[in-house]
Amino acid sequence: MLSGLRIVEICGIGPGPFCAMHLADLGADVIAVERPTSTAPGLSAADRHVLNRGKRSIVADLKTPEGRELVLRLIEDADALIEGMRPGVMERLGLGPDVCMARNPRLVFGRMTGWGQTGPLAQAAGHDNNYISLSGALYYAGSAAEPPSSPITVIGDVGGGALYLAVGILSGVLNARSTGKGTVVDAAIVDGSAHMLQLLLGTRRKGFIGGERGASMHDSSHFYSTYRCADGAYITVGALEPQFYALLLEHLGLTADPRYSSQWDRQHWPELHSHLTGIFASKTRAEWCALLESTDVCFAPVLSPDEAARHPHNVARGIYFEEDGELQARPAPRFDGKAVAPGPIPTRGQHTVEIERALDDPAQARLWRS
């Protein structure tokens, strides 16, 4: 779908490489500029990184004039650049937006950081859990009795970071193609994870969430929660709407229990949650799946990635695959009912010679795939 989109990625860690992989999954031609190592590239599987899937890899030392010039030559014919350095690092390397956009005025300069390019914390170190903490996104994660638990990189690095950067880059490219003018995209995880809260904040008037932890649907109700089963595995229920709640009570044999007659009476939530905890602990996860899966109770088992890869629904959709002993998820979303085929994972620097030769070709015919 993104054939013809040309991106140069200055490789870093976390959300920047994920964003570039996502765009490569969807057909963009991404050249990953990786740092040199003490060993020659391509010697072992350790020189392959799954986030480089579908990209071409070159090695360049950006602290040298030759490495910087290589990047500048690459961006002359690119639509976008992705970098995830701390604010000011690219400028100190001589590869800041002013320099790069002087070479290519229509370039979209994508910047991926945790705190953003400006603000009191811009230069501070941080990680996913720090950014979602400050944005407010971590607040409702868990019950009032326990500290909030950080989801593994999904909310911040991927949701609030990589995907927002992808949207920003695509928006900038569309604008550049109509105006001939590039732009600088400041994708901060703290911004994106706060923006994602808008869906949750929009439920305040309905009473789904409140101002305190432990008093909202997500962290204290009995009908939207995670429960431990007899075998130590877990299941989730999300019977939010009244018709789904009624169906949950029916399947659990609780329709006639007067305690469950007022779903939104919060003063009874602790008691009801405790009661359901005992009920769900009476059967194994497999037994609950046999009873509740594929119903409108809004139910699902909590699976590890390896278990998820074997679940019949995920198998039917081909969501996971394994290559060279490494579990991977296929690109998303799908188009016209078909999943996009993922590209191969290159070894570090695999395409360095090929791309450098192409840059020396006046026509640059081999630089970008058609």
Provide the CATH topology of the largest domain. Rossmann fold
Tally of distinct domains:
2
Fraction of residues in β-strands = 5-15%
How would you characterize the largest beta sheet? Answer: 6 strands, parallel
In CATH, the homologous superfamily of the largest domain goes by the name: Crotonobetainyl-coa:carnitine coa-transferase, domain 1
Overview of this protein structure:
This protein has 370 residues and is α/β, with parallel strands linked by helices. The protein folds into two domains: 6-196 and 340-359, Crotonobetainyl-coa:carnitine coa-transferase, domain 1 (Rossmann fold, 3-Layer(aba) Sandwich), CATH 3.40.50; 213-317, formyl-coa transferase, domain 3. 36% of the residues lie in helices and 14% in strands. It contains 15 helices and eleven strands. The protein has helices at residues 15-25, 65-75, 89-92, 97-103, 128-135, 154-179, 189-196, 198-201, 217-220, 242-252, 269-280, 285-292, 305-310, 312-317, 352-359, and strands spanning 6-10, 29-34, 56-59, 80-83, 108-113, 183-188, 224-228, 234-238, 299-301, 320-323, 326-329. It has a six-stranded parallel β-sheet, with helices on both faces. The protein has a three-stranded antiparallel β-sheet with strand order 7-8-9. Strands 10-11 form a two-stranded antiparallel sheet. Helix 1 (15-25) crosses helix 6 (154-179), helix 5 (128-135) packs across helix 6 and helix 6 (154-179) packs across helix 7 (189-196). The longest helix has 26 residues, at 154-179. The chain is elongated and about 80 Å long.
